[in-house]
């Protein structure tokens, strides 16, 4: 089986790095997954994305799983499946969703993950759990730092540096303790050593796309930084990137941390990629490294961002001019 060779890429030295968790993956039979999910029963459905549906399941040993069943077999689905499995098999970090295994029988393509009891950040900010107001300020900060650490690991510590290309609220899952786990690696790209970026067809989600990526297809770590910046602003404001909604924090937040989150979000979402911090710097900034924050605050760059961003609403929507790319993004 071709996928087995991918898994041999997991280096044991990787597991020794900080923040890693030990897990094992295996190949599941279709029968086992049908049993676990009550034959992909509608009642077991956790959600649906562009590439398929996700079902809750329970294995014979009592452990809970989430099974992503790819919609219909196609070349695109096959690529998405193998990229996701390959990337997830290579990475192990407390803030990256753990791969439990996969199943490739006939035309069925299924990916098995740890079940995340609190679903996604999206479901708490804007979806089925939003009315419960479970995301107090502490949890928001913890999620912001955790997700930043997961992405920083992909960019800086994974054996081949990896860019995610689809950082957004629905791809940040939350476990039982509201710990963030970054998910969905179907669009991920490996960055070859020494390369600053790769040129590729644009994938991702409107509202989170860095301008140079949406317009020119230039994908690099800093595109993820941009998307993460938008996500930070979403966490702080409770508003969707392209919608106007009120925050449910109801005035209950730590002012200094809120300022920090917004500030880091703005710096990450700078129009010019070279002005964005690295994810390692983002982690330090979010954790409140006073010296680094003071340096950035006094930097001419930040004043420029504020001036530039205040006129952002007047500027045309750059993505809408790229009809072909827009269609592709919408399809995705
Ligand atoms: N491991 C998991 N544990 C619990 N819920 C999950 C898990 N994986 C996915 N989900 C739920 O299933 C939903 C659908 O996930 P999926 O990744 O297929 O689509 P999406 O992220 O909503 O959209 P897109 O296709 O644009 O990525 C998620 O939003 C989440 O609520
Ligand atoms: Mg997703």
From TrEMBL:
Biological process annotations from GO: defense response to oomycetes
- Could you tell me which residue ranges the Protein kinase domain spans? 40-293
What are the recorded GO MF terms, alphabetically? ATP binding; protein serine/threonine kinase activity
Annotated membrane topology is:
Single-pass type I membrane protein
Q: Where is this region: Disordered?
A: 307-332
The cross-references to PROSITE patterns, in alphabetical order and at most eight, read: PROTEIN_KINASE_ATP (PS00107), PROTEIN_KINASE_DOM (PS50011), PROTEIN_KINASE_ST (PS00108)
Q: What are the GO cellular component annotations?
A: plasma membrane
Compositionally biased residues, Basic and acidic residues: 320-332
Q: Which UniProt keywords apply?
A: ATP-binding, Cell membrane, Glycoprotein, Kinase, Membrane, Nucleotide-binding, Receptor, Serine/threonine-protein kinase, Signal, Transferase, Transmembrane, Transmembrane helix
Q: Which domain of life is it from?
A: Eukaryota
Listed Pfam families: PK_Tyr_Ser-Thr
Where found? Cell membrane
**Which residues are listed for ATP binding in this entry?**
68
Q: Which SMART domains match?
A: S_TKc
Q: Which Gene3D superfamilies does the entry link to?
A: Phosphorylase Kinase, domain 1, Transferase(Phosphotransferase) domain 1
What family is it from? Answer: In the N-terminal section; belongs to the leguminous lectin family.
Q: Which PANTHER family match?
A: OS01G0750732 PROTEIN (PTHR47989), PROTEIN KINASE DOMAIN-CONTAINING PROTEIN (PTHR47989:SF1)
Supply the name of the protein.
PTI1-like tyrosine-protein kinase
Q: Which organism is it from?
A: Abeliophyllum distichum
């Amino acid at each position: 089986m071709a996928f087995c060779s991918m898994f041999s890429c997991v280096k044991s030295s990787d597991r020794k790095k900080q923040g890693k968790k030990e897990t094992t993956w295996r190949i599941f039979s279709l029968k086992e997954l049908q049993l676990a999910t009550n034959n992909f029963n509608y009642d077991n459905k956790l959600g649906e994305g562009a590439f398929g549906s996700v079902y809750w399941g329970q294995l014979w040993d009592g452990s809970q799983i989430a099974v992503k069943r790819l919609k219909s077999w196609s070349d695109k689905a096959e690529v998405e499946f193998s990229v996701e499995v390959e990337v997830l098999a290579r990475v192990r970090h407390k803030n990256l969703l753990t791969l439990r295994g996969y199943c490739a029988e006939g035309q069925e393509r299924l990916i098995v993950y740890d079940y995340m009891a609190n679903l996604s950040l999206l479901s708490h900010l804007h979806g089925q759990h939003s009315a419960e107001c479970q995301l107090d300020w502490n949890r928001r900060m913890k999620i912001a730092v955790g997700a930043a650490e997961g992405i920083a690991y992909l960019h800086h510590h994974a054996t081949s540096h990896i860019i995610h290309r689809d950082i957004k609220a629905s791809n940040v899952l939350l476990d039982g303790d509201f710990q963030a786990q970054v998910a969905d690696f179907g669009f991920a790209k490996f960055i070859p050593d020494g390369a600053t970026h790769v040129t590729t067809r644009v994938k991702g989600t409107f509202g989170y796309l860095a301008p140079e990526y949406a317009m020119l297809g230039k994908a690099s770590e800093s595109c993820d930084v941009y998307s993460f910046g938008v996500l930070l602003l979403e966490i702080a404001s409770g508003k969707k990137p392209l919608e106007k909604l009120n925050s449910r924090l109801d005035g209950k937040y730590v002012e200094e941390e809120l300022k920090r989150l917004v500030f880091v979000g703005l710096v990450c979402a700078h129009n010019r990629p070279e002005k964005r911090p690295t994810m390692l710097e983002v982690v330090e900034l979010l954790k409140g490294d006073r010296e680094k924050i003071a340096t950035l605050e006094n930097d001419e760059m930040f004043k420029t961002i504020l001036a530039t961003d205040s006129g952002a609403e007047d500027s045309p929507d750059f993505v809408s001019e790229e009809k072909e790319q827009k269609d592709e993004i919408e399809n995705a």
